[in-house]
Amino acid sequence: MSEEITQGIPDGRSFEDRVFARFDVIDARFDGMDARLDGMDARLQSLETQAERRALETKPIWERALAEILELKQGLANVERKLDILTRDIVQVRADQAHAESRLGKLESQSLE
Fold first, then answer.
1. Is 64 left (phi over 0), alpha (psi -120 to 50) or beta?
2. Residue 18 contacts residue 9 (beta carbons within 8 Å)
3. What is the predicted pLDDT for the residue at 1?
4. Hey, which of 12, 30, 53, 106 has its CA 20 to 30 A from 89?
5. CA dist., res. 95 & res. 82, Å (int)
């Protein structure tokens, strides 16, 4: 190995001064990042506040819509019950009509004899 001493950096400052200068640069960058993060945090908080306000504004609309859906569902259940009764009535009328036609047919055949 060579006994040659590493050449000094032309800056002329001591090693410690150069290290501390680099630390100062790093600290400045961290401060800048902190400021940017604070700005982003404020914007995010503003968006959250707006979202909460909108949720409160639209809550009555959703509650009203859900109530109307429930009312519609109950009305539909009533219509289904009525259709069921109507269907049974129609079937009964058709059965009675078939029975009456059968009796009429027998009477007609007896009168022709």
1. alpha
2. yes
3. 52
4. 106
5. 20
With vertex at residue 45, the alpha carbon angle to CA 44 and CA 49, rounded to the nearest 5 degrees, is: 115
The pLDDT tens digits of the residues spanning 4-29 come to: 565 555 678 899 999 999 999 999 99
What is the biggest distance separating any 2 CA atoms in the chain, rounded to whole angstroms?
A: 147
Distance CA(25)–CA(6), nearest Å, equals 26
Phi-psi region of 76 (alpha: psi -120 to 50; beta: other; left: phi over 0): alpha
Residue whose tokens read 């809550």 = 59
Residue 57 dihedral angles phi and psi, to the nearest 5°: -70, -35
Nearest to 15 by CA among 3, 28, 27, 6: 6
Distance CA(61)–CA(65), nearest Å, equals: 6
Reported as a single tens digit per residue, the pLDDT across 94-109 is 999 999 999 998 888 8
